Amino acid sequence: MASTSEKTPLLSHHGNLESDLTKLKPAVIGFQSEEDDSSSLADVDLSGPGQSGEKGNQLYSKFKGPSSGPRLSGVLGTSGGNAVVVESKRRKPFHYSSVPTYLSNDGQIENAVDEKTAATFNRYRYYSRLAGNPGQRNNTLEIPDHVLPPFLLSVELPFKDKEGKQGSLVTIFSIWNTMMGTSLLSMPWAIQQSGFLMGLILLVGMAGLTLYTCYRVVKSVQRLESGGKLVEFSDVCREYLGRPGEYAAVFFSLAALLGAMIVYWVLMSNFMYSSVSFIYGRAVGLNTTGNATLCALGHQDGATSQLGVNVNMSNITDAAETMFAKVWSKTHTVPLFLCILVFPLMNFKSPTFFTKFNALGTLSVLFLIVFVTVQAVRFGGFHMDFADPGSKYYSALLSAHFPACSGLLSLGFFIHNAISSILRAQRQSENDGRDMTIAYILVAATYTFVGAMFYSTFPLKKACLADNLLDNFSHGDVFAFTARLFLLFQMVTLFPLLVFIFRIQCLDPLFKSAYPSWKHVLVLNLILITVAVLFAVFLPQIGTIIRFSGAFCGLAYIFTLPCVVYLLELKQQGRLTWPVVVAHASIIAIGAANFVAQFVFL
């Protein structure tokens, strides 16, 4: 990214103004193309005794001669009959020497346009000149398609930065907003799988490990970007590991995106089914059990919750299967109906419209926090018993199924393939490490609050916890219906954005274009939607999908590639030591064990 040039001194030239202009003209024209030469971006404002004009000001154009106007050159200025020349700034990829300026009434030189607009214009002119004739231009100087722009991932806040950069607050919440996702809904289930104490330990441990490897990704990218080109971590892997390293980084990044899209499709089908069932039940007057707390596994122990209702989820529809039940099936028809709504949105060439809904991610997380807090109050306090295994509220401290939690957290803390794009818009890059640490602490705190609060207050057996906490509430629960409807809208608007990022990272390496043709995009979208529908029909368990995809992608992109790249960097610099090798080899071993354990402890 361009950095603002340092301030340069003003040099006073006394004598013949025409002579000064003649000397300066070649330097000015060297920065402009022919079509820009007539734009008066380097005009001279003459003022002082003997000059005509409404207020003693007059424009001297390089080509047109004297003409009236209020503007002053970006390189020249006069006051009291003397020409004041702003020293040309050094020629840089992004320079600002042609910003139109004017003299204020108090004699100060001020910009006629804001710096961001001027920087964009000069950037365009600079690249246009270097690209050569229009018939001979190529995309050598264009930003690569696989380098994601920060606006895809940044949170929109109600204030703007004049420099076009984001401060630490925006950076922190952009990381938090991007990382928080579907794993939040499965956090109570993950704690139940691992045991209460082990779940909290894994939350802290995985947050620390993923933060460190994410920091290593950022530093390796910044080191390669110091040469002046924009890169992603896949480019870093190519630099140190060759083409196989690049392909591995791209493949596992795509696998993480695909896993997220599958989970999104399962959840959208779930929320769409429950929302329509709620509306249908209210319309025909069906008894949908009100605010019942449901046991996801169908356990019926005869006890009731604090709400006075404990029903099996399989009994929420009438025993006699109606036509509505045949047409509106959660796993057989709804995933197909969802295609009608979402597939047209997947084929948009640009995702700009959908980025406007990024703020919904923050709102949905806040809504879920409020939802869990309200439900905890309705449940009547904590329901935990660590001593008696026969108790209804028995809560194990440790469980052999803890890999389910570690696998889920691998995807829950995964932001390694997007972190560079977010931090690229950071105003002060020296704060990257601090801001990332704060963001990871916020994410871990959010996961812990939602998971631990819902788990500890849940009024039924802990084995009844669903991998989607909203499945523990009946279709007739108005609060749960509101949450489902809100999340459905959010996911429908964000799913095309995931598809767009997948398209960039998949098609650009293959065809050197993110949009080769509408046929390529259509085929890719059909493949993606087919995979998503198959999972929604045959394996609609988001906890299982998240744990396996997280462990698989984390093995490479979280635990292995960042560590290997860092060790190779140290080796090139002659700073590699055995303690460093052992420490990073241990991180890689943890990732491998996490992946293997998913198959051992099912």
From TrEMBL:
Keywords: Amino-acid transport, Disulfide bond, Endosome, Glycoprotein, Lysosome, Membrane, Metal-binding, Sodium, Transmembrane, Transmembrane helix, Transport. InterPro entries: AA_transpt_TM. The keyword Membrane applies. GO terms for cellular component: late endosome membrane; lysosomal membrane. GO terms for molecular function: L-amino acid transmembrane transporter activity; metal ion binding. Residues 32-76 are annotated as: Disordered. Residues 171-281, 326-597 form the Amino acid transporter transmembrane domain. It holds the Pfam family Aa_trans. The chain crosses the membrane at residues 169-190, 196-215, 247-267, 332-348, 360-381, 393-416, 437-458, 478-501, 521-539, 545-568, 580-601. It is found in: Late endosome membrane; Lysosome membrane. Belongs to the amino acid/polyamine transporter 2 family. SLC38A9 subfamily. PANTHER family: AMINO ACID TRANSPORTER (PTHR22950), NEUTRAL AMINO ACID TRANSPORTER 9 (PTHR22950:SF244). This is Sodium-coupled neutral amino acid transporter 9 homolog isoform X2. It comes from Acanthaster planci. The gene is LOC110984381.
